[in-house]
Amino acid sequence: MENKWDHFYKKSYEQRLSLIAEAANLSKAQLDLLGRSLNPRSGELIENNLTDYPLPEGIAVGLVVNGHEHLVPMVTEEPSVIAAASNGAKLLSAGAGIHCSVPDNLVSGQVIVKDADPHQVTKFVHDYQQQLIQIADQSHPSVLKYGGGAKGLDVRILSKQFLSVDLLVDTGEAMGANIINTMLEAVSNWLSEQLTVETTMAILTNFADKAIVEVSGKVAMAKLGTKSLSGPQVAQKIADASQIAQLDIRRATTHNKGIMNGVDAAVMAFGNDWRAVESAAHAFAARSGSYQGLSTWEIDEDQLVGRMSLPVPIGFVGGASKVLPLAGINKQIAQIDNSREEMQVVAALGLAQNLAALKALVTDGIQKGHMNLQLRSLALSNGTTMQELPVVVQKLQGMDHPSSQTVKEILKILRR
Ligand code: MEV
Fold it and tell me: What are its E.C. numbers (predicted)?
């Protein structure tokens, strides 16, 4: 029997919308909102598209990377993240700024071979290396135009049954998922023909250990002092926090989540695949066999020094960035011209975000900043104007359980 959702993808946009409206009992106003939010080009990216889902975008200021100051567009729904990023950026940029380098920018992938003789496959891959590289390149020849292409293959024995033939590719300015997957399928077909072996799959790996950004930054300890703690005391507490993230998976996960608050927000603003960056980062954090903090902070004379190695597998061209016009504008705002700069800005922002989070945690605690934003939004959503805002927020800060009613009462007195 025909189900009304069968061949949903073949229906027109209007037909899909009316089916959903009926099933979910959507009002006219709700339908209008879905329609207003729709970017007609989104259908070029995804299937069954209904609308576009907007998230807030803001700008982190003052991030100095390798001597260049960047404004960084960030897409996030979380209060305090952008303020914290700017804060961390300011601290790290006061001295020499943040230093970043990208030793390699390569994508890797694997062809899994089943029930084959490991010595035969290993010998074959080494003996026919050049031919395999050619087969990979010919399956996607446009990579050769910019000097990219397959760079080498290796074999790893995973178990008695499975081998992984690993391919490394320079995909230039693209993130390269399509390029490498095409190449891997060509390599897989050729291997199974030549060796009469079964290949289980051919796919890139998100373990992006050949797309690492090395990032470091210093803050003069004197700049870290608060009302109740001296700069060196705060620096020592941040160094302690970093050590705890090396010791304990529970803290390491949250420590890294703080880094990814910045990383993901920028990766999204630049129109890249943030799940790829997320999975790469967390897998890299567990590369020693235990999951650890991605960054470390240590005291060196009068400075607090942060270091991080972070995989940032993103591209400057291609992918969704073609269809998402804001991604292009955001790259222009950030003043980045190529994928290495893009990777560096993202990683530097992650370190700045981490510093701000740790500083808040070991001094005032995280709730203070959050609370202020919540009070601002409570005040604004109850009719406070921008001029009245500082006074209203100050009054709300002194109260135990501020509510909409409290705001209205404060405004009544203020406007008399
Ligand atoms: C909140 O989104 C992120 C933090 O929890 C990060 C951290 O604890 O380091 C503040």
Answer: 1.1.1.88
CATH of the domain at 194: 3.30.70.420
Give the Å distance between the CA of 84 and the centre of ligand 1.
10
Instruction: Using the Cα atoms of residue 61, residue 63, residue 69 and residue 72 in order, give the sign of their dihedral.
Output: negative
Judge whether 107 and 211 are in contact, CB under 8 Å.
yes
Residue 273 among the catalytic residues: yes
Name the catalytic one among 173, 214, 370, 388.
Answer: 370
Is 77 marked active-site? no
Same domain, 221 and 344: yes
User: What separation in Å is there between the alpha carbon of 82 and the centre of ligand 1?
Assistant: 13
pTM for the structure as a whole: 0.91
Per-residue pLDDT of the chain (416 residues; tens, 9 = 90+): 788 899 999 999 999 999 999 999 999 999 999 999 998 888 888 999 999 999 999 999 999 999 999 999 999 999 899 999 999 999 999 878 899 999 999 999 999 999 999 999 999 999 999 999 999 999 999 988 888 999 999 999 999 999 999 999 999 999 999 999 999 999 999 999 999 999 999 999 999 999 999 999 999 999 999 999 999 999 999 999 999 999 999 999 999 999 999 999 999 999 999 999 999 999 999 999 999 999 999 999 999 999 999 999 999 998 777 778 899 999 999 999 999 999 999 999 999 999 999 999 999 887 777 778 788 889 999 999 999 999 999 999 888 889 999 999 999 999 98
User: How would you label 114-143 residue by residue, b for 16+ Cβ within 10 Å and e otherwise?
Assistant: eebeeeebbebbeebeeebbebbbebbeeb
Query: Residue 259 C-alpha to ligand 1 middle, in angstroms?
Result: 8
- What's the 254 CA to ligand 1 centre distance in angstroms? 6
What DSSP designation does 200 have? E
- 114, 123, 257, 368: which one is catalytic? 257
Annotation says 257 is catalytic? yes
Say if residue 230 is in the same domain as residue 175: no
Length of the chain, please?
A: 416
Q: Are residues 332 and 189 in the same domain?
A: no
Atom in ligand 1 nearest the alpha carbon of residue 84: 10
Residue 200 lies in a domain: yes
Are both 185 and 38 inside the same structural domain? no
Secondary structure of residue 225 in the 3-state scheme? coil
**Residues in contact with ligand 1 (CB, 6 Å cut-off):** 78, 254-255, 257-258, 261, 357-358, 361, 366
Structural domain range at position 143: 107-204
In a domain, 210, yes or no: no
